[in-house]
Amino acid sequence: MEQKDTAAWIFQCWASFILAFGTTGIGVYFLPVDLWVRGFMWMGMLFTVGSSFTLAKTIRDQHESERFRNRIKEAKADKILSEFEFRDAA
Asked: What is the Cα–Cα distance from 7 to 89, expressed in whole angstroms?
């Protein structure tokens, strides 16, 4: 069973990401600090965004792998049960 996200959900996710990134970027740009401090803040923000995407992908991949393993275990259990029921009926 494939789960599809609605267009409204996808829009909300992208809109919130763009809004958060944009407003933080504007805040860093207008900080009353030296250029090197502003550069450090930009670097930190970009690394945080990149690591957030990596973490989300890793968690998703882990979840999908677990679902696949569970489907294999269920198939094995169904096979064992059907063989047991077949022998019991005979």
From this structure: 51
Do the Cβ atoms of 24 and 45 come closer than 8 Å? Answer: yes
DSSP type of residue 1: -
pLDDT tens digit string along 37-53?
Answer: 999 999 999 999 999 99
60 in Cβ contact with 70 (< 8 Å): no
Stretches where the chain sits below pLDDT 70 are: 1-2, 86-90
Cβ atoms 29, 38 nearer than 8 A: yes
Determine if residue 45 is left, alpha or beta; phi over 0 gives left, psi from -120 to 50 gives alpha, anything else beta. Answer: alpha
